[in-house]
Write a structure and sequence with these properties.
- This protein is α/β, with parallel strands linked by helices.
- It has a domain of 97 residues: Rossmann fold, CATH 3.40.50.2300.
- It has 4 helices and 6 strands.
- The protein has a 6-stranded mixed sheet with strand order 2-1-3-4-5-6, sandwiched between helices.
- α2 packs parallel to α3.
- The two termini are 20 Å apart.
- The relative contact order is 0.16.
């Protein structure tokens, strides 16, 4: 702990988003908030490549992606590397509940995204989250990466 702040469990994030404006906004916001964005990709193939080459603490993934595969396929690939996935989507299907650690509903503000990541970080560290940010749902199978 440094000056009253605890170490983050989530430091290196992979963004998987096929809407360029959202991808750019998320990358800028997360970098500004002190996270290391190790990649911003728009397809399953690119996500798998980054997951195989980089150390990743969290994947932020939309469900609908360009090309073959979707966000649930990204979550399966991430699970093989023990990397948690937070879905960011307008409609999170029931099947995603067993694949991700939660879902943040689109649209969301910068503040909601930051608060969601802070709450997720707490939960990953085993700290009780007293107030879950609007639009964020945690799934039951949440465990530490």
């Amino acid at each position: 702990m440094l000056f009253g702040k605890r170490e983050r469990a989530i430091r290196r994030i992979l963004i998987v988003e096929d809407e360029p404006l959202i991808a750019f906004d998320n990358e800028y916001l997360l970098t500004d908030a002190g996270y290391e964005v190790i990649g911003t990709v728009d397809s399953l193939a690119e996500a798998v490549r980054v997951l195989s080459e980089e150390q990743v603490d969290l994947v932020l993934s939309d469900i609908t992606l360009r090309g073959d595969g979707d966000g649930m396929d990204v979550a399966r690939a991430a699970a093989a590397k023990n990397v948690p996935v937070l879905f960011v989507t307008g409609n999170c299907p029931i099947e995603a509940h067993s694949l991700g650690i939660g879902c943040l509903a689109k649209p969301y503000t910068d503040k909601i995204l930051k608060n969601a990541l802070a709450a997720l970080d707490q939960r990953l560290q085993g700290i009780e989250v007293k107030r879950v940010p609007a639009g964020l749902s945690f799934y039951q199978g949440l465990s530490s990466p």
